[in-house]
Design goal:
Blueprint lengths: L3 H28 L5 H28 L29 E3 L2 E4 H19 L9 H24 L3 H5 L7 H19 L12 H20 L7 H26 L8 H15 L8 H25 L7 H19 L19 H31 L6 H6 L1 H6 L8
Antiparallel strand pairs: 1-2
Helix pairs in contact: 1-2, 1-3, 1-7, 2-3, 2-4, 3-4, 3-6, 4-6, 4-12, 6-11, 6-12, 7-8, 7-9, 8-9, 8-10, 9-10, 9-11, 10-11, 11-12
Length: 412
Amino acid sequence: MFDIGLTTFMIMATSLVMLMTPGLAFFYGGLGSNKHILSIMMQSFVSMGISSILWFFIGYTLCFSGNMANGTDFFGIFGNLDKIFLRGVTPRTVFSPDKRFPEYIFIAYQMMFAIITPALITGAFINRVSFKAYIIFLIAWQLFIYYPFVHMIWGGGILAEWGVLDFAGGIVVHATAGFAALAAALFVGKRKEKKHQPNNIPLVAIGTALLWFGWYGFNAGSELDVNHITVAAFLNTDISASFAAITWLIIEWNTGKKKPSFIGLMTGAVAGLATITPAAGFVTLPVAAVIGITAGAGCFLAVRYKNNKGWDDALDVWGVHGMGGVIGTILLGLFATTSINENGVNGLFYGGGFSLLLKQGTALLLAISSAFFFTLLILKVINKFVTVKVSPSEEKKGLDISHHGEVARGEY
């Protein structure tokens, strides 16, 4: 009944993506200050629980039930409610006739994306948002921003019908989260403590390693099959990350502090991973290298621009993930080729004209503007009922103690 090999592969890919959220917690936790380590890590881990529950209740059906072509969804923006509470899906349900693995695995795989996407945002407002407000934000943001874009692009919605491509989440995950992060950082304002140093760089290294490792499942698994596209996405992921890491290292070494930093090397790798995501299964290996170089330089400049503007996006979510998603999506419009993925289309540089580039750019504008303005609206509404920004005394004391009553170490 099931394709055992494909089922095993999808279980492994799902497990890899699950591992990325703890990896993100370590990455952010190591970059945070001593008094806020647990609070930032908890924001990632709590998403594993709440987002999973929300996905079971209503998330999966809003994303992957019905489609616009058959007129069975809600205006091409949301799916229908046929699978609310995962109704009608059993362990024996096959995902599709040509992809014979259990639908349960697809539910779990996409759930891991739903978990990590809002968690990415938390790096922007480290030290400044109350846990209670974050819980409400976590739910509302998925309902009104993440779920619609999943359905519109991956669930047979309006953007999919138009021909927008996003292999593993450059628009759906990184662009939306990155610009939501910028909106959140602007809403809560700057941190009171001006000096900020990472508390544990080896912890950041562990987080980077887990993210890089998990990203193979994130990108290669998005083919939902084991074939030539799968292996292309796998290797493209590593090549882009490697080129981006070294590009960032070289630029940083020759500017600013004039020293090669470990944090810079790891940040560059994450930038390369985020940037290749939309294009991983659509581009050649040399193009993946070009995307990595562009990611390293482009995201570095975005972070520098953010610093010059005085935006307190603490852990550079906008510069790395937001702009990484933007750069990768645009480069996909230029370099996509059917020689790699016959189910895609050719980009501008492969004889496809401006059509794909126009579609990618329009989808990007819709995604980043929606994510930015709806995030501001959500935070403003939450703030009417629950104070979003912590008090100066709570921030000074540290959210680990003031909000959670725990410390990461025996003393600060």
